[in-house]
Model the fold of this input.
Amino acid sequence: MDAVFKALAANSRRKVLDALFDEDGQTLTALCANVDMTRQGLSKHLQALEDAGLIVTEFAGREKKHFLNPVPIRDITTRWLRKYSEKQLQAIENIKSAVEETAMSNSKQFAYQTWIRAPKTRVWEALTTPEFTSQYFHATYIESTWEKNADVYYRMAPGGDIAVDGKVLESDPPNRLVISWHVRYDEQAIKEAPSRVTFTLEESGGQTRLRIVHDNFPENSVLFDRISEGWPWIVSSLKSLLETGKPLPTRAA
Done:
């Protein structure tokens, strides 16, 4: 958390975060214009923010895009602020959440990042095997050969009904996995064209940084409005399973 406070202490870095809050998923060139900095100076600030976990980067072709990661800010709120003024801060956070959801809907991309105390081979196994997904991913059993263009299924039971299906677009075990995403458990979402989910794993010191970018949504997507809460809970349950041996308790729908 020290790295987060240090990153937030610089006014220039707070300006970068404000610019990404206004328009998430910007390139270095776009940010330079929006925050009035040189490329060299901005690059240093972006690296500090990424090291602190305050932003997540993802490549779209040759473009490197930068996304806000709200987790460290929420951790600070929980650890240092909320206990002193719960009611007032809860009201502020509710307003902030509403604004964030509006900004996210405009960009049609969702980015999320967390650190897991486990090697990336273990995290990859948790993402790609039914023995793990059945414990943390709403009791679904994942099924695929994980070769490029292979089918991907999240089943409600072994050999049972399909909750989500897709195709393997990229597979580089245990570093990167890109799949298409088509929901079949919802009568409205099932009518939508598939979106895309990218998992990126980077290991350092026995810990793995897991980044998820869910994008490529169709216009007026029903699914997009629901994932900003769904993915953080799923990943938190995965993290709990790998670090403690137990997933999060099943929550009410």
